[in-house]
Amino acid sequence: MRLFAYFLLLLAVLCPAMKAEAQSAWQKEWETALAAAEREGEVGIAGPPGDAFREVITGFTKQYPKIKVELLGGRGGDKVARILRERQANVYGWDLYISGPTSALAAFKPVGALDALKPALILPEVKNDKEWIGGFDAGWADLEKKLFYAFGGTLSGDNIYVNRDLVSANEIKSARDLLDPKWTGKIIIQDPRVEGKGLTDILVMSLAYGDELVTKLLRDQKLTVTHDRRQLVEWLVRGRYPIALGLNEYVLIHFQKQGAGKNIAAVEDPKTIVYWASGSSGIGLFNRAPHPNAAKIYINWLLSRSGQIDWVKTQTNSRRADVPPAEPNSAMKPGRSYRNVQAEDMIPQRRRIQQLASELLP
Fold first, then answer.
1. Which domain holds residue 136?
2. Which of 34, 115, 130, 275 is the most buried (most CB within 10 A)?
3. Total domain count for the chain?
């Protein structure tokens, strides 16, 4: 009994000391990295296109004014091609890649261009399972769970958008209804032959309903294909096309803020609500990064609550459970199981859908 009491007393003495030591360890690591980052004075990011991401960068530079951000924005394919050319010429100008995981893993992983991300994570809140929907590890997009992390996620179930002035609520309830001959020639889609929202939406339909439905849709329904995200939304809003696939919600919200697009609604298909996509909300760390400490600071800030509150200004939901979603209707719910359609294990199926679309679309 005395031995047990002594053991409890020893625990009471040691536990606070161990906790304090662990706390001081990460704080010391953070302070060292921050001081080195401020000496580097810059972080180079290859990131998503558009002004929304620039607002996220502004949030970082306000918090860390001694670290400026050099941004290479644009489409994933364009950024990837440029970075690969630079690296082949032994030019290593970028620290971080922030975009969709598919292009990053397909292009950079085979040539060993990415470093393990987990060693760069310093802040305890970033690695805390309780702070992330599905736990922290559910965000890894690569098979080894170490190279590319998806911090944002939106349910892919809302992949059909309609103009309610032209399509009533009972006319289209699922992807099956798109095959009705009356919709032939009346559907616009973001090109599914290249990486993007159009490809993701067709993939989700294939996973939920099978390739037969997708084949009939692409082959028989005379889809109008566009690469222009804004054009797709504008034509849907104006009623030129009553149905859209591959719609970018951020662009739609921009229209709605200007008073247009209130007539646009998503079709809630119960068979597709188990799938999610990270969109451009993924991050990887380049090896031979020119500003390794500034990259660490940016990674930890972005995955923190503070950084994710800024990130949702891009109208993309965060996977952090303590950050209010930008779009509640498409937000993942804690305690439920979902499948990431942009993860590495889905790349073969994405390529298969791309090939199918290339064969069937004019």
1. 11-153+278-337
2. 275
3. 2
Please provide residue 48's backbone torsions phi and psi, each rounded to the nearest 5 degrees.
Answer: -70, 160
Judging by DSSP bridges, how do beta strands 96-98 and 42-46 pair with one another?
parallel
Q: Indicate whether 107 and 174 sit together in one domain.
A: no
Residues 147, 117 contacting (CB under 8 angstroms): yes
Which residues make beta-bridge pairs with 285?
96, 115
Among 52-56, 117-121, 170-174, 191-195, the range scoring the smallest mean pLDDT is 52-56
Model confidence pLDDT, tens digit, residues 93-121: 999 999 989 889 999 999 999 999 999 99
Q: Note whether residue 266 is domain-resident.
A: yes
Whether residue 148 sits in one domain with residue 19: yes
Q: Which two tokens stand for residue 33?
A: 């990295």
Side-chain-facing half-sphere of 219: CA atoms under 13 Å: 11
| Section 224-247 average pLDDT | 96
Q: Flag whether 6 is in a domain.
A: no
Dihedral (C-alpha) 52, 57, 63, 66: value to the nearest 10 degrees? -160
The H or E element spanning position 23 is helix 2-40
Predicted pLDDT at 329: 79
Which residues, including other chains, have CB under 8 Å from residue 143's CB and lie 6 or more apart?
344, 345
* Span 339-349, pLDDT tens digits: 899 999 999 99
Residue at 212 is within a domain: yes
Strands, DSSP E only, in 96-171?
A: 96-98, 114-115, 148-150, 154-155, 160-163
Please name the amino acid found at residue 234: E
Residue 260 has pLDDT above 70, yes or no: yes
Nearest partner of 277 among 341, 345, 199, judged by Cα: 341
Alpha-carbon dihedral angle through residues 323, 324, 326, 332, given to the nearest 10 degrees: 80
Give the angle 247-251-256 at the CA atoms, nearest 5°.
110
Backbone angles phi, psi at 130, to 5 degrees: -65, -20
Angle at 42 between CA 37 and CA 47, to 5 degrees: 115
pTM above 0.85, yes or no: no
Q: Is residue 5 part of a domain?
A: no
Is residue 61 domain-shared with residue 142, that is, in the same domain?
Answer: yes
Q: Is 290 helix (H, G, I), strand (E, B) or coil?
A: coil
CA distance 259 to 264: 12
